Amino acid sequence: TGKLTVFCQMILRRLIAIFTLFSVVMAAISGRTDAFTKKNDSKEFHIVRNNSAVPIIFDKNDAEVVGICANALAKDISLITDIIPGIHNGEYINAPSAIIIGTIGKSDLIDRMVKEKKLSVDKIIDKWESFILEIIDSPLPNINRALVICGSDPRGTAFGIFEVSKRLGVSPWVYWADLLPEKRKELSLEIDKITMGPPSVKYRGVFLNDEDWGLQPWAAKNIDTDIKDIGPKTYALIFELLLRLKANFIWPAMHPCTKAFFYYKSNPQTAKKYSIVVGSSHAEPMLRNNVDEWKNNFVTEYGKQPGEWRYDTNSDEIKKYWEDRIEEVAALNLEAVFTIGMRGIHDSGMPGPDNTKDKVELLNKVIADQRKLISEHFKKSPSEIPQIFCPYKEALALYYAGVKAPDDVTIVWADDNHGFIRKLSTPEEQKRSGGSGVYYHLSYWGAPEDYLWLCSTSPSLISYEMTKAYQNGADRLWVFNVGDIKPAEMEIEFAMDLAWDINSWQPVDAEKYPEEWAAKNFGINYSGDIVKIKNEYYRLAASGKPEHIDKLNFTEKEMNERMTSYKEIVNKTMELKRRIPERVQDAYFQLIVYPVLGAAYLNEKHFYARLGKYEMSKQAYEKIKELTEIYNKKISGGKWNGIMCMNPRNRPVFDMPDSNSHNDKKELTVNKRKPIKIISVNELIFDTTKLCLLPGLGVGGASLSWINFTDRSFDESNALQAPGASVRLNLPKGKRTVELICLPTHSINETRGLRTAISINGRLVDIVDVNTPSKSAEWSENVLRGFSRTKTDFILDEDGMVDLHLSLLDPGLAISKIIIY
Ligand code: REL
Fold this sequence. Notes:
The chain is α/β, with parallel strands linked by helices and 821 residues long. It contains 20 helices and 28 strands. It starts with a helix and ends with a strand. The structure holds D-glucuronic acid. The site of D-glucuronic acid (REL) has 11 residues, from loops.
């Protein structure tokens, strides 16, 4: 039934999507001016008609974010129609029709409609970030008809406003990717009463990281030009983007090139205005950016040099430093989530005792002291102030060794920096009142290698990992490392859509996301091609991200195949570019042309060099240079000057090739044995009640996995009862080896592995486990090449047909390919 429900939901959603797209197209063809086909006269609300726009009304006592978003909606409407609605935020006005916006309990207009039973808010009242959109007749005296946007809280109202924008055809990326809406003379919205929220994940947002080559120089040159930094004007743009994406949370930029978020007093004030919740990364406990505040600003703040960043020797000074930030946050009444615990000044282990036992003891003391400070300064029980503990990198080992996150603290599990979550809560940990969340990378600086340039993490992988996390209780906070934001636009939107509604995209259909996204943004005429381009781009990156290509081994045949595949999507991209409407040409360049061509040329640059074709390699390098120049200088009237860097951190992978490049020694091991069969997962016959094929996942283009990540319905003592997959093969006699190629996931938690029982002709041959400890050499290979592998031998006494059966013993195991040697 579970699978059936998922399947039915999927079909239903597809049908709705097809109907919606069809409606938009029909509307366009027939010259209609409303965003969605009219079903029923009484539900159509005219926003702009006969060169005039309905006014937008909200209560001046409502939260500041409501006014900010109401103004943004007015601008969105004028972007479509060239007519700007009047905004009224005080008096009751006379109008035949109006857009009325407000928050329950903060807006007299809303409260009056509720009291007079014009508006029923039962479904959202007291709920987190929920909203209603409804067309109401005679909502208030002197207004005949209104589109009412009503939020359960200020962010709920903001999300409701931007939901309207979206339905009118304005993308969340209208500013950040120049996705301009189609012009119309008249504009109307047809809706039944819509109720949305609460979101699946309570806090959802982004970590601006490694901003040195994009966001920081761009902001300094173009936005916060007075301070030459990422400052309040840039944050205002980012916060508006977050609200449009229905996100609410940020870990601000924190690299040495950027001043600490709290350094500019107007940064936290801007967050407050936009109602964005502020946190700080895993390396910045208590909202303190140590790189700037401990190392640079300490003298100005405290009139002396700081002592050592060691809690065992300098706790008083460190405590005072934390205490002052708590006071600042409390005085500002800023909505914040405190990261507790301690690491090094930047992204390193906590300095202090060498041995694990003492480290654990010290970290537990740090946490206890931090909570005492929080409680004292907020004059509340610490359980009332949101806190997270993020066992990132070495901190996970300390957690395993005994660091305790107090019960009300949210544990934010991290991925291995390469998109595979290292650990999720055990059933026991899931009982904690603070619950859990996830810190996940779409961009990364560090070992075994960065990927700071493009974003090639597919919706399929994001959905697989985050759905697994959600099913294991990670619903309190999701934070995505998005690098410079660009060019990770679609992937960010996907992540936020999923965080808002975990059922919106299942791992089984996430591969379709680019189609729906492209139809909304570019039009249905192009979405079929765009989804093919995007999915091929992800497929190629699944076996080697562009930024890792210099570290990978490919045979000559594989290199040529990859180049051919890239050429095909480059051609398709450029052919489509000729047809894409002028209005979204700049957006198309940012969202499709640059990443696709960039990835293709970086592959070419390396492969041609390895094949000894130095001139062609050089040409590919020059093309990347040219594309980057176009991005920074030519498109959108030069708006993106400084945002795109073709060689972040000057990694060798980005270098101009030299004529010796073909002598390059790669670091990964080469498989010398010749396979006698390669079996794709599509050839398997499997238990469809428990397992499913996930397209777009893994190196084979699809992977076989459990559907439900918490299923415990089989008897683990009998491996052959586990959900299984079989294939019949004709094999020659002798010693044979079966190799499983799997997605390099980690076991769900320490109580599980990633085991497969392999049987030949009904006889159990072996139980193998592909779980690989993070940071091992094997793990480094796995994440760069996109798979983990395990092998087992068996003997065949005679030639002939053989039944190979795989029993998948653990959730989170995803088999991408089977090879027989
Ligand atoms: O991705 C991460 O969380 C870390 O790599 C970062 O915290 C760190 O700032 C990294 O960018 C290196 O400086």
